[in-house]
Amino acid sequence: MTSPAAEHQHTDGDGTKINVTILVPSGKTKEKIIQELFLWHFGPDSAFTVHRCRLEGPEPYMDNVHAVEMELEFVGQDAADTYFEEMLPQLEAFGYELGPLHPIAAGD
Description:
- With 108 residues, the protein is an alpha+beta fold.
- It is 27% helix and 31% strand.
- Strands 2-3-1-4 form a four-stranded antiparallel β-sheet, covered by helices on one side.
- The protein starts with 15 loop residues before the first strand and ends with a strand.
- This is BTB/POZ fold domain containing protein.
C-alpha cells in the first residue's frame, strides 16, 4: 500500500502523533501479525514513523496477541486522515479491527 503521503514518510518529531490500537482476531500467530501488519502496513512505503509499539496479550503473548498498540507520527493531519481512510478496509480484510485513535498533544 502506498499512500500519497508516503513520499513524506520521514518526520522530525514535529508531525501529527497518534496513539493507535489495532485489535487482533483470535488465532493469529506472531508470524501472521508480522506478515500482515508490520511488513505490509508498516513497511518502507508507509506514510508514518513508528515511535513505540507494544503487543498486548497473556503469556506466552507472542502467539496470543490481543492488540497491537503504537505511537505513529505523520507529517501532518491530512497525511494521517488519508492513511486511516485507506488502511481501514485493508485491515478489515485480514480480520483486524481499528481500535480507538488518540491524538497526542504537541510536546508530549
